[in-house]
Amino acid sequence: MGALDLLVHCLNFAAPALGVALLMRFFSLLSQKFAKRSQGPVAGGWVQLGVNFTVGLVVLAGGLWFFGRDGMMATYGALVVGVGLSQWVLNKGWRV
User: Fold this and answer.
1) Phi and psi for 72 in degrees, rounded to 5?
2) Cα–Cα distance between 96 and 81 in angstroms, integer?
3) Contact, 51 vs 90, CB < 8 A?
4) Are 76 and 60 in contact (CB under 8 A)?
5) Which of 12, 34, 57, 80 is least buried, going by the fewest C-beta atoms within 10 A?
6) Radius of gyration, alpha carbons of the chain
7) Cβ(86)–Cβ(51) below 8 Å
């Protein structure tokens, strides 16, 4: 495998984590707009995106380690749960 193939494989591995992190940030902005909460999020937008992307990559790497291959639906389910939980923590969701 050449360097370009390795780069493409790594980017395709990270794409679901980035997609879920971007969607989570978008829906977080929507919920803040419609909920009209008096306090904003604890972390800024770029910090939320970076943390969610990192959590997503860790979950995907854990799924690759556990199952021995990537692309398992259980890993994608864990990705959604993990990124959702990190977004909840970043927004201090327990303080409704």
Assistant:
1) -80, 140
2) 20
3) yes
4) no
5) 34
6) 15
7) yes
Tokens 């803040």 found at: 32
Between 83 and 93, residue with greater pLDDT: 83
Helices (H), 1-96: 3-35, 45-67, 73-90
Which backbone phi and psi does 87 adopt, to 5 degrees?
A: -65, -40
Whole-prediction pTM: 0.87
SS3 for 13? helix
Tokens at residue 57, please?
């990559």
pLDDT digit string, tens, across residues 2-51: 999 999 999 999 999 999 999 998 988 888 778 766 566 667 889 999 99
